[in-house]
């Protein structure tokens, strides 16, 4: 489990963390750090621009209907569990094999998975199939939260001291937090933020190292790095400063004077300084966005695509923003599919469209090999069904997309299609055999985190056998 630093934070760190909304009573939707100060170890020499984009599937993605057993033997096992009509609605949760033909994945001929299993993507994800076929998409199998490698026998022993496992398994808030930070709900920093701690020194404007488009999340909180919050339409600004109120400039002038005034009280002075900087950065980033253009069509009525569109615009503004390393966080809600897994497929269709549009934007910018997108989620779900849905699970399958990805292959170990095998802990809940630590360390290494720095990003990484899963190009094993 990650153990953070002492709670005896410096005044600067306290101010940075406690004022992320930037100003009381303002419409600002982003947090603000004290800019221009690299309070962490720098990456040193950087090799051009690189960005990581975390797409969080909020609610716990049903991996079994996202990446589906397709070969005849394993599909028959899958359909025996998920192919029964619900008595009240007649809805069938599982996919017939012929429905999967258009999205069947043909992996590298040299790769043989457990039980000679072959997979197909959800029929709602044809674009991601193309990315897999073209070598840009890598599925990573059975990833989940772990404190150390764990077997089924060790799990069932109940000895949590000898065989530690994550706290509060199957809990949304806690497992989301552990996925993002290595700690249950209440964690202070996430691994995206801890990477940003290290990367800040590589950026001229450290404020824009980590950017959150999805609201509150521990993923981008660092020990010194503070996520900059932005909406899909751009940074939130204090409206009273931008226009007259009821036809008069009196209120805007008074607000400006209040914000720019000095105060002998240290906390008030720091708070006023934060407000001043929030105004400056809002104007700065709006100006940078105005100078960047992206012609890629992100469509409409797709919230995830809207979030990724502003990420693409920010990346296009990277030179104006003065950054060479960035970490972004976006999310799509609605994956807690206790019922109506048909709605889950609509969500996967939105993911498919949004990820494809984002990759197209990186191609347009000529940096598709410098931007890597990856998925995360609270947990996977049960293979067994409860009518028309599934329940909270543990391990699940995830995707990594980008020009630097070694695609057209699977990573991790394929689980058995069963409700009670050695890689299940009941009802088809997957016992993860690839840890979030290994998954994130592979991404962090490509991003520029060194072997000696890796434990500051994922403190438990030394407990696992594969600190580099191999799905990134130009990422040699430690």
Automatic annotation (TrEMBL):
Pfam families found in the cross-reference section: DUF1501
Domain of life from the UniProt record: Bacteria
Name by which UniProt lists this protein: DUF1501 domain-containing protein
Organism in which the protein naturally occurs: Erythrobacter crassostreae
């Amino acid at each position: 489990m990650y153990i953070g630093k002492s709670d005896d934070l410096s005044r600067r760190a306290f101010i940075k963390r406690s004022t992320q909304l930037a100003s009381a009573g303002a419409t600002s939707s982003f947090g603000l750090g004290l800019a221009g100060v690299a309070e962490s170890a720098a990456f040193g020499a950087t090799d051009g621009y690189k960005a990581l984009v975390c797409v969080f599937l909020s609610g716990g993605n049903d991996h079994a209907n996202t990446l589906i057993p397709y070969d005849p033997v394993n599909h028959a096992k899958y359909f025996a569990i998920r192919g029964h009509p619900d008595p009240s609605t007649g809805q069938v949760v599982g996919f017939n094999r012929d429905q999967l033909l258009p999205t069947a994945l043909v992996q590298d001929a040299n790769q043989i998975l457990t039980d000679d299993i072959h997979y197909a993507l959800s029929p709602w994800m044809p674009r991601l199939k193309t990315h897999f076929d073209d070598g840009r998409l890598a599925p990573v199998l059975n990833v989940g939260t772990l404190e150390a490698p764990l077997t089924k026998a060790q799990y069932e022993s109940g000895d949590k001291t000898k065989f530690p496992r994550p706290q509060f398994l199957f809990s949304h808030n806690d497992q989301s937090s552990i996925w993002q930070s290595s700690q249950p709900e209440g964690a202070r920093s996430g691994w995206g933020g801890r990477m940003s701690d290290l990367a800040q020194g590589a950026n001229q404007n450290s404020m824009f190292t980590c950017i959150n488009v999805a609201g509150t999340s521990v993923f981008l909180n660092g020990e010194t790095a503070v996520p900059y919050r932005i909406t899909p339409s751009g940074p939130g600004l204090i409206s009273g400063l931008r226009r007259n109120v009821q036809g008069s400039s009196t209120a805007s002038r008074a607000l400006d004077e209040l914000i720019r005034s000095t105060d002998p009280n240290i906390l008030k002075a720091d708070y006023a300084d934060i407000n001043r900087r929030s105004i400056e950065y809002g104007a700065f980033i709006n100006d940078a966005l105005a100078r960047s253009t992206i012609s890629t069509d992100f469509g409409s009525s797709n919230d995830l695509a809207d979030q990724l569109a502003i990420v693409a615009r920010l990346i296009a503004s990277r030179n104006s923003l003065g950054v060479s390393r960035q970490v972004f966080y976006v999310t799509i809600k609605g994956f807690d599919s206790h019922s109506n897994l048909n709605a889950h497929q609509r969500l996967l269709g939105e993911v498919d469209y949004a990820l494809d549009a984002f990759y197209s934007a990186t191609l347009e910018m000529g940096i598709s090999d410098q931007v890597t997108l990856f998925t995360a989620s609270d947990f996977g779900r049960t293979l067994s069904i409860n009518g028309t849905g599934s329940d909270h699970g543990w391990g699940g399958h995830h995707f990594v997309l980008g020009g630097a990805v070694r695609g057209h292959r699977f990573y991790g170990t394929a689980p058995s299609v069963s409700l009670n095998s050695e890689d299940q802990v009941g009802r088809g809940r997957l016992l993860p055999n690839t840890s979030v630590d290994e998954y994130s360390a592979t991404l962090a290494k490509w991003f520029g985190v060194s072997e000696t720095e890796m434990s500051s990003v994922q403190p438990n990484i030394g407990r696992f056998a594969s600190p580099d899963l191999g799905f990134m190009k130009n990422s040699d094993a430690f």
